[in-house]
Each structure stands twice: as structure tokens, then as C-alpha cells.
Design a protein that fits this description.
The protein is mostly helical. It contains 3 helices and no strands.
Amino acid sequence: MAKINTKEDIISQDDIDSLLRISEFIEPDDENSLVEELKHAILDSAKLELEQWQTLRDHLGEIEELIPHIDLIIKLKKEK
């Protein structure tokens, strides 16, 4: 007999979209990954204006603040 899915078992379109965005962000071999985008911007630094570079740096600072939390999550998941 098949199990009937409850609301908690069903993934929403927002959840799917969020997972796809995260996947695109971290995928190392994807030309559209954040790292690849940054490399292209650096190689062609004329693509961004000074204000855009400053905004980018601010965003990277926010990511740097999250790194210890990400490291803790990785450590805990490995221990599990």
C-alpha cells in the first residue's frame, strides 16, 4: 500500500527554486557559479564600476562572517 504524502512531505516550488539557486551558487564546474562569475569579472575588471566593486566586496564580507557558521554545520554533519 502506497504511503499518502502529508503536507510536510511535499516540497514547494519556492523550496525547489531555493535549492536550485543554492546549487548554482556552489556548483564548482558550472560556468555560472559565483566563483566563475567573480573570476570573469576580475579578468575583465572594466565590466564593473567602482561602486559595483565596493558593493560586491560588502557582500563578500557578509559571506566571510557566515563562514564560521558554515564550518560548524559541516563539522556537525560529518560527526553525524
